[in-house]
């Protein structure tokens, strides 16, 4: 596959446009369809790049600003204990991070209990709490959008 096809497939797989929380010219932050922990996200480059070294200085500056926004919003919305940024790219060859808020204890959101099954070790990335229920993902997205605006 060529770059535009990879990018399109990535954005479709992770439902980037549908679950978008915030966007800059270079980066998108969206809710991760599989919620490993409450508030998991995908932070992805808006153009095709297969390697982190391809990111420009201007894009890196935007990344720093968006990371600050993410951390403030997720803290405000869900009160994480620590946050992990994982750049794995073993399956999806597009520059992106899995943003995984970490919690020492359970959280309540949308009438549901949310746990961090990997705490205090590596996040349990295969975990999909509460399935990929569209209504729950929409509520998470809206909570994070509101926290960004507040």
Automatic annotation (TrEMBL):
Annotated TM spans: none
InterPro entries reported in the protein's UniProt record: HIT-like, HIT-like_sf
GO molecular function: catalytic activity
Superkingdom of source: Bacteria
Pfam families: HIT
Domain HIT: 42-109
SUPFAM superfamilies documented for this protein: HIT-like
Cited PROSITE patterns: HIT_2
Descriptive protein name: HIT family protein
Organism: Candidatus Accumulibacter affinis
């Amino acid at each position: 596959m060529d770059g535009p096809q990879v990018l399109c497939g990535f954005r479709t797989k992770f439902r980037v446009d549908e679950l978008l929380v915030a966007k800059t010219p270079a980066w998108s932050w969206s809710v991760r369809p599989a919620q490993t922990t409450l508030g998991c996200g995908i932070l992805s480059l808006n153009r095709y790049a297969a390697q982190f070294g391809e990111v420009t200085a201007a894009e890196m500056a935007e990344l720093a600003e968006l990371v600050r926004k993410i951390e403030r919003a997720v803290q405000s919305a869900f009160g994480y204990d620590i946050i992990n940024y994982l750049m794995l790219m073993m399956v999806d060859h597009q520059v992106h991070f899995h943003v995984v808020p970490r919690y020492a204890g359970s959280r309540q959101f949308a009438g549901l209990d949310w746990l961090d099954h990997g705490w205090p070790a590596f996040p349990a990335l295969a975990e999909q709490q509460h399935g990929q229920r569209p209504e729950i993902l929409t509520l998470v997205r809206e909570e994070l959008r509101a926290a960004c605006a507040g």
